[in-house]
Amino acid sequence: MIKDLISEGDFDSLTKGNICTVVYFSTTWSIECKFMDQVVKTLSKDGFNKGVEFLKVDSELFPTLALRYNVTAVPTFVFLRYGVTVDRVDGTNAADLTIKVNSIVDGKPSSEFSDNSHFIERLKRLINRHKVMLFMKGSPEQPQCGFSKKMVALLNEHNISYDTFDVLTDFTVRDGLKEYSEWPTYPQLYVNGKLQGGLDVVTEMIQSGDLQELLAKAAIDG
């Protein structure tokens, strides 16, 4: 069975309680979506009693959700485990979609579909990989967005030692960390495992001296 999202307010309640929800972003006019409708219809019948739910979301009716999951074209399929993004399929890749759904149905999930607690532990390990951890788009040498570039320049200007993770290399981390931190954009800066914020917040913290004080305390507690 495929559920159609009627109200954006229902989205979290329809996804966070499920072992796996496949969120199908589509539009009514897309020829590609009409093709994938048949694929999803078949998969939903096969997987319904195995803990896999399908939720169809019209990306034009719910643009906020499309933005939240970085949907820039349809069809797009976002896999959520207890509300946390663990994988996705972009476009009319029926074979890839089928393989990923069947991996759950067969009880042989790939590493992306590990238990939710394991995924959260992975995020925690990444966050705590360095006392100052920056999740950004690209690398310090080659930032892939203006905000990430400015954040790197800011940290370097103040001689702050930090490590980075390129969220563009791992969709599961990119989308999952947004859910975990409840912070919708990148870059994100963590100190001692705690989110400090994005570029604007960190800039204010440096200007006020709060970040330097926090880093000094982190070094003492070290």
From TrEMBL:
Domain of life: Eukaryota
Gene Ontology MF annotations: iron-sulfur cluster binding; metal ion binding
GO cellular component: cytosol; nucleus
Keyword Transmembrane helix (UniProt): no
Any one biological process term the GO annotation gives: intracellular iron ion homeostasis
Residues in Thioredoxin domain copies: 1-106
Entry protein name: Thioredoxin domain-containing protein
Lineage: Eukaryota, Metazoa, Ecdysozoa, Arthropoda, Hexapoda
